[in-house]
Amino acid sequence: MLDVRSAEVIHTDSFEYDTAFPEYGTEGGYSEPASGLRHTSPLMLLEALDQVFIRLQNKRVDLSLIGAVKIDAMQHCTVYADASFGERVESLDAVRGLLPQLGPSITRRTSLSGKTVPVKEAEYLAKELEKCGSMVALTGNRAELRFPHLRS
Which residues contact residue 88 at a Cβ distance below 8 angstroms, ignoring those fewer than 6 apart? Predict the structure, then answer.
């Protein structure tokens, strides 16, 4: 945790997906890493986010003081959700975990993560999203090889 007033780091923590969530059968947080494609479970990512807050509570951190959360983990992992996701987020119950509340809206049980998009697909995304304002305007990023491709 960072105290933004003093710029002092006041708390750090870490855990490994494989150890914390063995039921997902991951290696380095990914399922089937030998295939060359980096798939992971979005459900595991929801559980990991819950784990972060459980650990903060166990350290007696006043969660009401948290203004933002940054968790280093699965970079550029695309999670697909149905139309109920926004409503589910708006009605989250702090007493219940994220998985039972948001899990039903997740439409794909695995998601590609990392550098998996060929150049042509990155160019295609950039061109198609120009119709909607641009990739940068919509996502804050330009289309690069780091974005998971759409056919996972």
Answer: 101, 102, 104, 105
Q: Which of 91, 104, 96 is nearest to 43 (CA)?
A: 104
- For tokens 């890493």, what's the residue? 33
What backbone torsions phi and psi does residue 117 show, to the nearest 5 degrees? -100, 125
Biggest CA pair distance of the chain: 49
Answer whether 28's CB lies under 8 Å from 74's CB: no
Instruction: Write the pLDDT tens digit of every residue in 68-94.
Output: 776 666 666 778 899 999 999 999 998
Mean pLDDT of 4-15: 82
Tokens standing for residue 80: 């697909």
Q: Do residues 117 and 145 touch, judged by C-beta distance below 8 A?
A: yes
Tell me the residue type at 147.
F
Structure tokens belonging to residue 2: 């960072």
Residue 46 region, left (φ>0) first, then alpha (ψ -120 to 50), else beta? alpha
| pTM, full prediction | 0.69
Asked if 20 contacts 50 with a C-beta cutoff of 8 angstroms, the reply is: no
CA dist., res. 39 & res. 113, Å (int): 6
